[in-house]
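[Discussion] Sanity-checking designs against the backbone

I'm trying to build intuition for which residues belong where. Below is a structure token string of 123 positions. I'd appreciate it if someone posts a full sequence so I can compare it with mine line by line.
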């Protein structure tokens, strides 16, 4: 599998902003769907936003108009810009990348999760 590196979580006041980033470790990738999910204690992990290989995005209704998912193909990185944050946005945010990586002999499919980064929105 492919290791992912996430960053950008933290504590922010309501109305504030944070940017999360996620990138795989390695060099040669072909990406499929990439996205962010959120989980709170006692609840299942839920979709926040995804971006397809053609750049089309999909957002969960509670974050539409406040969160923006983007990508930097040169850095293999996806970013989740979160604005107008609310206390209900609090949770552990997990990056998920799907695609293929070059293993030296051919392409191998992967579906990897990051370790999670905590976002806390509180005054």
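Best answer:
Here's mine. Compare freely.
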């Amino acid at each position: 599998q492919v290791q992912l590196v996430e960053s950008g979580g933290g504590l922010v006041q309501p109305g504030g902003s944070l940017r999360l980033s996620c990138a795989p470790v390695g060099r040669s990738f072909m990406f499929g769907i990439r996205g962010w999910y959120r989980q709170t204690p006692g609840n299942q992990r839920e979709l926040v936003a995804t971006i397809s290989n053609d750049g089309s995005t999909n957002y969960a209704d509670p974050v539409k108009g406040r969160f923006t998912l983007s990508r930097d193909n040169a850095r293999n990185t996806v970013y989740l810009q979160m604005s107008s944050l609310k206390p209900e946005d609090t949770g552990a945010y997990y990056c998920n990348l799907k695609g293929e990586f070059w293993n030296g002999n051919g392409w191998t499919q992967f579906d990897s999760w990051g370790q999670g980064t905590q976002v806390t929105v509180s005054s």
